[in-house]
Amino acid sequence: MSRKTDREEEGATAPNDAELIASYIELDPRNRSRAEARLVGSGVPVWAIVGQYQATGRDAAYVAESYQVPLAAVQAALAYYRQNMAVIEDRLEANAV
Questions:
Q1: Nearest to 44 by CA among 67, 64, 76, 78
Q2: What is the pTM for the complete model shown?
């Protein structure tokens, strides 16, 4: 017999990557490149979120606090990064120059 988690017992499920991305990520209307995707509302670029996440020990809560955005927005940026890793890595590299 499997044991249910508290979230399963409550009927709650964590949003999946597609839901997070749809809720928190948009393309910049002036530059619709996937590398320039940004957080809805704040306009913080996904590449900036990912760069800070990588530079600060992969602490999503710290990144969310630093940018004053919801943790779910950082999780959405990371989900977007996983789906668009090559273009985001190229953008990070371009920013490092």
A1: 67
A2: 0.83
